[in-house]
Specification:
CATH class of the largest domain in chain C: Alpha Beta
CATH topology of the largest domain in chain A: Ubiquitin-like (UB roll)
Chains: A alpha+beta (about 160), B alpha+beta (about 775), C alpha+beta (about 290)
CATH superfamily of the largest domain in chain A: Beta-grasp domain
Order of helices and strands of chain A: EEHEEEHHHH
CATH topology of the largest domain in chain C: Uridine Diphospho-n-acetylenolpyruvylglucosamine Reductase, domain 3
Number of helices of chain C: 12
Shape of chain A: globular
Helix content of chain C: 25-40%
Largest sheet of chain C: 5 strands, antiparallel
Number of helices of chain A: 5
Strand content of chain A: 5-15%
Bound molecules: flavin-adenine dinucleotide, FE2/S2 (inorganic) cluster
Oligomer: heterotrimer
Strand order of the largest sheet of chain A: 2-1-5-3-4
Number of domains of chain A: 2
CATH class of the largest domain in chain A: Alpha Beta
Largest sheet of chain A: 5 strands, mixed
Shape of chain C: globular
Chain lengths: ~160, ~775, ~290
């Protein structure tokens, strides 16, 4: 079945089997391997992408369901060659160790900050509670999200 | 800015070099490796825990469009590959031929053009099983009438897989006979699983033309794996290249060799095409290296004034169907005999028995140095119960019995020589930060008020033993546990460091560059750290058991010092001075007394290739294999305050104060990160992580719906502090920290919950401490 | 984990969807948020020949108040309901339950209708609908019918839905007097299904007595249960701590939990008792403020 999904701003048209999961469409058809798979039961969030701006688990959506819609992956965080403030904040605050959960975490952070420019620690913890990290204990991920939010607020004031 | 901060050697929170690729989604994990003409493998696993295999009919699967091959144990038998050695000197089935011995055991493999098709074809394989009674309880397994699990093993008449002891039995028994007070605790440290976010997998690529096998593998120990591959498969070792690319967490899970790796490699050899195998989460949880599963009976002998005399432990380990623990050969229960912990105990004895059961094999150290976690848990729980028994404050009882700072180096009753420590300082700092006295007052008040809310305060003052190890005592499968580093400084003063260990997120690419920076003055950004590729790095035993810094970290410091010694000769030549007139300062040699007369390490490096002194070998590179003279002994004190809801048994961490002492901190930011992670996994183990089985041997805990991992919401907020007591024998005084927090924290959490209920007479709740178990304990206490 | 092959249809009207279901019957399955169905496909516990994606049918996800009812379209997502001021005002129990379902990412896709149709005894929505006295609208190519929530659930994963029917809407009667409600859930971590869940809805009369009490129970029986004895004991009673405690005991006595790794049957009963008591007290607080 032919579908067109706008991935990181580019319309991608492919012929796919209906059973193909979005995560495999991204990884294996488009070669965007920044989206990971960590479980079988929709429980880890390693596969998180934004679907029309909202974070969802791409292991639990068929690629055909995304036909005509917009998907953002970690590869789409960079704009005009510039790291997104969230990416910088994750590095600054040591918000990652093995890096496997990181793409999902950063995408959730992006959606969160867009709807809540100044999230509290509790709000960040709640927002990322569908994403498991085995390495960091979340402490620095929370700090990174809040640092990014502050950075984005500052940039907005400046401009 | 001083030169020291410019160079960012030891002690600087340098931002991690590896992050640049991860934050861009450019990490390269095994599953990201895609090769031309690559095939996909899926494994058929046993639905039964114990059954004889009568026949396997794979013809329908074989005929399924898109399927290239189906492999069974019979096919492997023809190549003598149906069984493989484990890291503990046992054998393990690669694909079952005679019997299946645990639910989830590998039975057959489908290799297909597409992973969806490989999965489809699994359903077309018909296996005729004769079910046998499953043995799921280790005590029943050890009973004389139990069905024999390892009937294929010559000389194996029962289900006992080892017996082992440590310490002085007689002295210990004597101490117990004379003891005024004996405190006992029977507890099960349950089976849990490291469950790194990335599961295990490989891409095996055997080149039919050259015979070279390149295997991308989720491995914490690529060199050891290569040697074992050479031994198992009979492939020439120089023709095997194991590449462990970015690894999405390990925690011990990626130390063993799994059947999937072997089958994928055999399939690639057979088919002449690359074969990818990536296990699902369920496969990961039901078949790969689990951890713990120790049934412990501990006893502590004390005087009435609180002086601790001796500890005695009888433990029974549930090892599953194959003895596949990843631990040093001599030590069947790992380093469990560190069970004297932080206390000056004159006698100790451990008696351990291992049982084969119809469960997955493994026994890996989940973020732990070979069973130190179980030992630390037991002693810290015993000490708290002893405090209740004696009517003493648990902090006071610890203080009274700690090994004092002036007693180091300290020889323990079971023969460890603790290198350094200051336990009083760490505990006092933790108590001070948590506001211990105020918490105790509040606890009393809440008890008096009699409402639904109770407060508990738990302490754990752990001592770890990490950094295996002196090669004379420690080997895995015969391979001595030294480690290595190779350093090449190029003409322009930029360097490549190659190490025998392998990162799974610990930040080696940064910290190891900092060690070089500290020793040679080459800034970390100018040092590329390579690891995880056997063709490209010197031999080493890999990263687990917190051994990277104690072993390869030391090797790095030593090899850098070797280059500095050579550099001194070159500098003398450049400065036209005598070697002994030169002094080393951060990144340069200076003429003593004339600091402006100096050459930098970069100058030296350039000269090493362009203008070496006569008679000196050109170049600036070297390699060092470091055999540590002793292990290192990180320690710390954790204090946890929990609130317990008496109505429902729910509990919540209010405070978690952690004081860690891992000696010199190379990169404090990274050290903190390791501690946060360990405190979280420790919390997970204490509160929710559990793999259990029903009476037929069906695994409960086979997906993230049952094997629960803490999210940001449940995870406590940590307050972390440090003391620094350097290791006297490590070149830079560092000790290793990757696991301290998982080792130390479970007892702190559990002690806190027990403490909340202690006035009601509750003395034990086995982990995971669920709300249901808390409520049941309250019921038993008559509340 | 890979789903088995199937045919995929994405109709853009309800009529078309119902026609496809009528044609394929048991062979077809509706796909709403996919947060239960796709995991089942991946584990190969389900293998429908045809998937009928409801996601492209407009107008099935509305939330509106009309004719003394709160009407929620079957495709309304959990997160949408958690954020809806109208739901908060008209049905505090639903508002309290929504953010406790699954995790934030699953809530962005999972739907109310899918949840009810899936009928997991550990699902949260069923109890809320029972407590609030909701009516469920079922449509087929042949027409529509309305089934009260209390009669919709028939057992483990079993409902009044025929294979040719779709759940299109839920109608929750709006309270006439001061009212409150809540949802209490015992879970082991975020994203976990309930060990025990209790939905409570309370309506007071002019004299401050209980006009109507609704109590739905999660994960303590083969389906979401109505705590009928407790509800009846409360109707017309004074909202006192004693009455709430008695309701707790009645609810605990009437449920049928099973022992498992989450806890013993006894424990779960006990939590029902505590949660019913606490839930009623909380609902009363809300009612008195409204
Ligand atoms: C990790 C995780 C945690 C979860 N935790 C919880 C939880 O705590 N509490 C809870 O209640 N749920 C939980 N869920 C389930 C979640 O709420 C699902 O969204 C819900 O059960 C199904 O809704 P859906 O829209 O995704 O339905 P789908 O998955 O699309 O469909 C589910 C079933 O309902 C049928 N169906 C769907 N819509 C209709 C309709 N309109 N008419 C007739 N039949 C229909 C489908 O054919 C299918 O059989 C969890 C799910 C996951 C993945
Ligand atoms: S892969 Fe785990 S939630 Fe998608
Ligand atoms: S950084 Fe490893 S899982 Fe989060």
């Amino acid at each position: 079945m032919e579908i067109t999904v706008t991935v990181n701003g580019t319309a991608e048209t492919r012929d796919v089997e209906p059973r193909l999961l979005l995560v495999h469409f991204l990884r294996d058809v488009l070669g965007l391997t920044g989206t990971h798979v960590g479980c079988d039961t929709t429980g880890c969030g390693a596969c998180t992408v934004l679907l029309d701006g909202a974070p969802i688990k791409s292991c639990t959506l068929l690629a055909v369901q995304a036909d005509g819609r917009a998907v953002t992956t970690v590869e789409g965080l960079i704009e005009n060659g510039q790291l997104h403030p969230i990416q910088e904040a994750f590095k600054e605050e040591h918000g990652l160790q093995c890096g496997f959960c990181t793409p999902g975490m950063m995408l959730v952070a992006k959606a969160l900050i867009e709807s809540n420019p100044d999230p509290s620690e509790e709000e960040v913890r709640w927002a990322i509670s569908g994403n498991v990290c085995r390495c960091t204990g979340y402490t620095n991920i929370v700090k990174a999200c809040r640092r990014a939010a502050a950075q984005i607020r500052q940039a907005e004031v400046a401009s | 800015m001083s030169e020291g901060t410019r160079i960012c050697g030891i002690g600087h929170s340098v931002k991690r070099k590896e992050d640049d690729r991860f934050i861009r989604g450019r990490g390269r994990y095994v599953e990201d490796v895609n090769l031309p003409r690559m095939l996909h493998m899926a494994l058929l696993r046993s639905p039964l825990a114990h059954a004889r295999i009568n026949a396997i009919d794979a013809s329908a699967a074989q005929a399924h469009p898109g399927v290239v091959a189906v492999v069974t144990g019979k096919d492997l038998e023809a190549h003598k590959l149906a069984w493989m050695p484990t890291l503990s000197g046992d054998t393990q089935a690669v694909l079952a031929t005679d019997k299946v011995r645990f639910q989830g055991q590998e039975v057959a493999a489908v290799i297909a053009e597409d992973p969806y098709v490989a999965r489809d074809a699994l359903e077309l394989i018909a296996v005729d099983y004769d079910p046998l009674p499953a043995v799921v309880d280790p005590f029943q397994a050890l009973a004389p009438e139990a069905p024999l699990i390892r009937d294929e093993k010559e000389g194996q008449a029962d289900n006992c897989c080892y017996r082992w002891q440590a310490g002085d039995k007689e002295a210990t028994d004597r101490a117990f006979a004379a003891a005024e007070v004996v405190v006992k605790l029977k507890t099960h440290y349950p089976r849990c699983h490291p469950a790194p976010l990335e599961t295990c997998g490989c891409v095996a690529d055997v080149d039919p033309a050259t015979g070279k096998a390149t295997i991308y593998m989720t491995s914490q120990a690529p060199h050891a794996h290569r040697t074992l591959f050479a031994l198992v498969a009979g492939l020439p070792e120089h023709n095997i290249q194991i590449i462990s690319p970015d690894v999405g967490g390990g925690f011990g899970n990626k130390v063993p060799i799994y059947p999937g790796y072997v089958v994928a490699t055999a399939a690639s050899l057979l088919l002449g095409r690359p074969v990818k195998w990536i296990e699902s989460r369920t496969e990961n949880l039901i078949s790969t290296g689990f951890a713990r599963d120790y049934h412990m009976e501990g006893e502590l002998a004390l005087d009435r004034d609180g002086t601790m005399r001796a500890v005695r432990v009888k433990l029974t380990s549930d090892n599953g169907a194959f003895f596949a623990d990843a631990q040093p050969t001599k030590f069947k229960a790992g380093l469990f005999h560190i069970v004297t912990g932080s206390y000056d105990l004159k006698a100790a004895h451990v008696e351990a028995t291992g049982a084969y059961t119809n469960k997955a094999p493994g026994g890996v150290a989940y973020r732990c140095s070979f069973r130190v976690t179980e030992a630390s848990f037991l002693i810290e729980r015993l000490v708290q119960n002893a405090a209740y028994e004696l009517g003493m404050d648990p902090a006071e009882l610890r203080r009274k019995n700690f090994i004092r700072a002036d007693q180091f180096p300290y020889r323990s009753a079971t023969g460890f020589v603790y290198d350094s420590g200051d336990y009083h300082r760490a505990l006092d700092l933790a108590l001070d930060k948590v506001g211990y006295a105020a918490l105790r007052e509040e606890q009393e008040r809440l008890r008096r008020e009699g409402g639904d809310k109770l407060l508990g305060i738990g302490i754990a003052s752990f001592t770890e033993v990490v950094g295996a190890g002196p090669a004379k005592d420690y080997d895995i499968a015969g391979l001595k546990m030294f480690d290595s580093a190779e350093l090449r400084v190029h003409p322009t003063g930029k360097a490549i460091l190659k190490i025998g260990v392998q990162t799974q997120g610990q930040g080696h690419e940064t910290t190891f560059a900092q060690i070089v920076a500290g020793e040679l003055g080459i800034p970390p950004e100018d040092v590329l750290v390579q690891h995880g590729d056997t063709d490209n790095t010197p031999y080493g035993l890999g990263t687990y058991a917190s051994r990277s810094t104690p072993t390869a970290g030391a090797a790095t410091a030593v090899v850098a010092r070797k280059l500095r010694d050579k550099g001194r000769k070159i500098a003398a030549h450049l400065l036209e001075a005598a070697e002994e007139d030169l002094e080393w300062h951060e990144d340069r040699f200076r003429v003593k007394g004339v600091p402006e007369k100096s050459v930098t390490i970069q100058d030296v490096a350039f000269a090493a290739y362009t203008n070496p002194p006569e008679g000196l070998e050109a170049g600036l590179e070297g390699v060092h294999y470091y055999d540590p003279p002793n292990m290192t002994y990180p320690f710390g004190s954790y204090v946890v305050a929990v609130e317990v809801d008496r109505g429902t048994g729910e509990w919540k961490v209010r405070r978690m104060v952690a004081v860690d002492d891992c000696g010199v901190r190379i990169n404090p930011m990274i050290v903190e990160g390791q501690i946060h992670g360990g405190l979280t996994e420790g919390y997970g183990i204490a509160a929710m992580e559990l793999i259990t089985f029903d009476e037929d041997g069906n695994c409960i805990g086979s997906s993230f719906m049952d094997y629960l991992l803490p999210t940001a919401w449940e995870t406590p907020k940590f307050e972390t502090y440090a003391t620094v007591t350097p290791s006297p024998h490590h070149p830079i005084g560092a000790k290793g920290v990757g696991e301290s927090a998982t080792v130390g924290s479970p007892a702190a959490y559990v002690n806190a919950v027990i403490d909340a209920l202690a006035h009601l007479g509750v003395r034990n709740i086995d982990m995971p401490v669920t709300s249901a178990k808390v409520w049941e304990a309250l019921q038993r206490a008559g509340v | 984990m890979y789903p088995p092959p199937f045919d995929y249809q994405a109709p853009d009207s309800l009529e078309e969807a119902l026609a496809i279901l009528a044609e394929h019957g048991y062979e077809a399955k509706a796909l709403a948020g996919g947060q239960s169905l796709i995991p089942l496909l991946k584990l190969r516990f389900a293998a429908p020949a045809v998937l009928v994606d409801l996601g492209r049918i407009p107008g099935l996800d509305g939330v509106e108040a009309a004719d003394g009812e709160l009407r929620i379209g079957a495709l309304a997502r959990h997160n949408q309901l958690a954020a809806s001021p109208l739901v908060a005002e008209r049905c505090p129990a639903a508002s309290a339950a929504a953010p406790q379902i699954a995790d934030p990412l699953v809530r962005n896709l999972g739907t109310l209708g899918g949840s009810l149709a899936h009928a997991d005894p550990a699902g949260d929505w069923g109890s809320v609908m029972i407590a609030c006295g909701a009516q469920l609208v079922l449509a087929s190519a042949g027409g529509r019918r309305t089934v009260p929530a209390t009669e919709f659930f028939r057992g483990v994963f079993d409902t009044a839905l025929e294979p040719t029917e779709l759940l299109t809407e839920v109608r929750i009667p709006s309270p006439r007097g001061p009212a409150g409600g809540t949802y209490l859930k015992l879970e082991r971590k975020v994203g976990d299904f309930a060990t025990v869940g209790v939905a409570v809805s309370l309506e007071l009369d002019g004299a401050g007595r209980i006009a109507r009490a609704g109590i739905g129970l999660t994960a303590v029986g083969p389906q979401n249960l109505r705590a009928a004895a407790a509800e009846e004991a409360l109707a017309g009673a004074e909202p006192t701590a004693e009455a709430f405690a008695e309701a707790g005991r009645l609810a605990a006595g009437g449920c049928e939990p099973a022992s498992d790794v989450r806890g013993s049957a006894e424990y779960k009963r006990h939590v029902v008792e505590v949660y019913v008591r606490r839930g009623l007290a909380r609902a009363l607080e809300i009612a008195r403020r409204s």
